[in-house]
């Protein structure tokens, strides 16, 4: 199968206290850590009216992930699972998805709580959280 090239354009980067593996929590949502997302000047118009949101989905490129790793043992488990069955940062395409609390917006900088990205991590997209869409309904 021949695929067209995949092009991603980072929209910004993360400022966080996490510098190396072991610093970041396993799940950012369970942390009260405050971080900043600095949006590149050319994408700042896309922030228009974002301050009215309480929660955001942040997609990052985890460039320090092990892209060859296809199985891992999740915390508290005794056996391996495929990385598509768990939330390991190590995966073929290390796109992270993290729901954060939006605390403030100031001159293209989003202050958020609950992001588990290293300092300098590239942000590839931001989407609003919608309780009507993003919460699974029990069958």
Mind explaining what this structure looks like?
By secondary structure, the chain is mostly beta strands. Helices cover 3% and strands 32% of the residues. The protein has one helix and eight strands, in the order ββββββββα. The protein has a domain at 12-65 and 93-129: Beta Barrel (Elongation Factor Tu (Ef-tu), domain 3), CATH 2.40.30. The model has no long low-confidence stretch (mean pLDDT 90). The strands form two sheets. It has a six-stranded antiparallel β-barrel with strand order 1-2-7-6-3-8. It has a two-stranded antiparallel ribbon with strand order 4-5. The relative contact order is 0.31.
Main traits of this protein?
mainly beta, 139 residues, 6-stranded antiparallel beta barrel, Elongation Factor Tu (Ef-tu), domain 3, 3% helix, two-stranded antiparallel ribbon, single chain
The share of residues in helices is under 10%
Rounded Rg:
16 Å
* Counted beta strands: 8
Average pLDDT value? 90
What amount of the residues lies in strands? 25-35%
Structural class: mainly beta
Tell me the number of helical segments per DSSP (H or I, 4 or more residues long): 1
Main CATH class of the domain at 12-65 and 93-129: Mainly Beta
Unreliable residue runs: none
Which CATH architecture of the domain at 12-65 and 93-129 would you pick?
Beta Barrel
Shape: globular
CATH topology annotation of the domain at 12-65 and 93-129: Elongation Factor Tu (Ef-tu), domain 3
Cα separation of the termini? 37 Å
The description of the largest β-sheet is: 6 strands, antiparallel, barrel
Give the helices and strands as they follow along the chain: EEEEEEEEH
Strands ordered across the widest β-sheet: 1-2-7-6-3-8
CATH superfamily of the domain at 12-65 and 93-129: YaeB-like
């Amino acid at each position: 199968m021949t695929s067209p090239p995949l092009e991603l354009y980072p929209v910004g980067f993360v400022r966080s206290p996490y510098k190396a593996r072991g610093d970041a929590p396993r799940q950012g949502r369970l942390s009260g850590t405050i971080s900043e997302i600095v949006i590149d000047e050319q994408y700042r118009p896309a922030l228009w009216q974002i301050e009215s949101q309480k929660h955001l989905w942040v997609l990052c490129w985890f460039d320090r992930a092990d892209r060859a790793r296809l199985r891992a043992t999740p915390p508290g488990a005794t056996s391996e699972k495929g990385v598509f069955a768990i939330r390991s940062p190590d995966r073929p395409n290390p796109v992270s998805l993290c729901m954060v609390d939006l605390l403030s917006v100031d001159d293209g900088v989003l202050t958020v709580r609950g992001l588990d990205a290293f300092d300098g991590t590239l942000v590839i997209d931001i989407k609003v959280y919608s309780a009507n869409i993003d919460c699974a309904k029990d069958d």
